[in-house]
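Complex 631.
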Amino acid sequence: MAGYVALHQQSINDPEGFWGDRATRIDWHVPPGRILDADRLPFTQWFVGGRTNLCHNAIDRHLPERANDTALIYVSTETGIETRYTFAELHAEVNRFAAIMQSLGVTQRHRVLIYLPMIPEAAFAMLACARIGAIHSVVFGGFASVALASRIDDATPTLIISADAGSRAGKILPYKPLLDEAIALCRQPPKHVLLVDRGLADMARTPGRDVDYAPLRTQYMDAQVPCVWLDSNFPSYILYTSGTTGKPKGIVRDVGGYAVALATAMDLIFQGRPGDVMFTASDIGWVVGHSFIVYGPLIQGVTTLMYEGTPIRPDGAIWWRLVEQYGVTQLFTAPTAIRVLKKQDPETLKRHDLSSLRTLFLAGEPLDEPTATWIADAIGKPVVDNYWQTESGWPMLAIARGIEDLPIKFGSPGLPVVGYDLRVVDETTGETCPPGVKGVVAVAAPLPPGCMISIWHDDARYVSTYWSGFEGKMLYSSFDWGVQDEDGYVFILGRTDDVINVAGHRLGTREIEESLSSHASIAEVAVVGVADTLKGQVALAFAIVRNADVIATTDARFALEGELMRTVEHQLGALARPSRVIFVPVLPKTRSGKLLRRAIQAVAEGRDPGDLTTIEDTTALDQLKDAMQMS
Ligand code: ATP
Ligand code: MG
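Predicted structure with magnesium ion bound:
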């Protein structure tokens, strides 16, 4: 495998040469003067002095050659809508959207919060922001009012774009009431709310603040809004992580580096070429949606398929029907979706012609071997795992088959991607672990283009969160455990922090704990993720009540449990609702007062809790076991 390894080596030894060459594959209004500025590590600036625009690279650049090719295919099995937009049509829609935003006072550097279901307007809105230099912050539609309010408070948007409702598995989920609640909760409300009315649910409008998209679209039908040429290091967007530490981190990305990184990923990993159709079954609220539903494919001139619906409605063959009908060449989703499909009759798969499909890509959580083997056999195509994070913006570990047919090893997402000086290091010293020895997955500075440039208005938190371990070495921590084999393949072994993954959705245990703690009866609470065959993980809560009287009877206990579940559902969304709330007299803690989450999780999953030398109350775990048996 000399070919790929040699290229990776070159990218690390001569980053300026490597990325300078890669940068020529996108359009620059002003080419960069300096490829890399690493004078102020861990802060890194790529393509200094360059001026470019993401929207230009995603749309305008392609107009001379392929104005009438399809840029965006939209399929909603929720509403039955299937449409296509050519690059020219997408260009027109984005120009209209940009003009509408300008008419509402949005200008360069303003934040625009996008709280939308999977509708084409979500992509138009993101691209329109990119066009005029507004910083978008897309918030996943599954988040409810409290989660939304904290993100509004952090990003302080001028404009929020939302809709009457989303729909999931045929059930209408109103968005507007949640948004109104969130705005009522937040400190600095937006000037305007732009509303896409899908006709799914009634919605109230606040006069003077709320405006409807459809009439404005008509008004700006012929608008032409030129791309604003942005400094390569200007912020393009903020995307919040799940927030293990309670307050979600606003990951900030640049413009030029992101464009170059995505073009590189599309070329080397996803092997997308004009004429290809990439179907990324994710949500625009997640990083995968940003990079591989919206920007990546379009920058590469690849058609993107945007999908609203579940993988099993109207039946388990829906995705394969789309592959056949639209000639999908790359399908990208999360292992959880495959686990859902696995429950379907394999015959449904065989009903469709999958000859257009070249590769199935999976990311976002560990890909277990049974799932990987099942789907590889079922579709008869390579299944390529890849590993990355909201922070990185594009894969950190992958099998980059654009160079050579690297072998796949099930259980490993592959080799470090070009540009990443990725190592598995000792948790304390940061020294590289020998092959076979478990350590933390880390990346030596400088991070490659496309990665986070900081946390929104919190440089100090960026440094203290990601760059402060390993005895002062300039190493970025991924907060994941890993192990590297003799061939350089990295295996991911789990997280060093506490995030749970419910059906592919990231939830910070801390956010759920905070929500439960807001209930008057609760003194203390611990939330852990426990393994669930279908959803990957579910949240399980252990709570201490303030006054034991409130759980004196079985009925009272059930009633309080229900109330607590509804509290979380209301504040954070249904996904975050714990599967059970178990009342306990005491929680296991370290002597320094930190919850021993990993021990709680082990007990909850019926495993050995391991080393307990730091535990304060040695009976705490037994009391936890008793409580679980009782309830
Ligand atoms: P937060 O950063 O707020 O705690 P999060 O880490 O869950 O949330 P993401 O950035 O969406 O949010 O997820 C990245 C994480 O997902 C990785 O750090 C890793 O734990 C896991 N992950 C992603 N891809 C893979 C993969 N292919 N194999 C194993 N784990 C993966
Ligand atoms: Mg993370």
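The domain at 2-481 is CATH 3.40.50.12780 (Rossmann fold).
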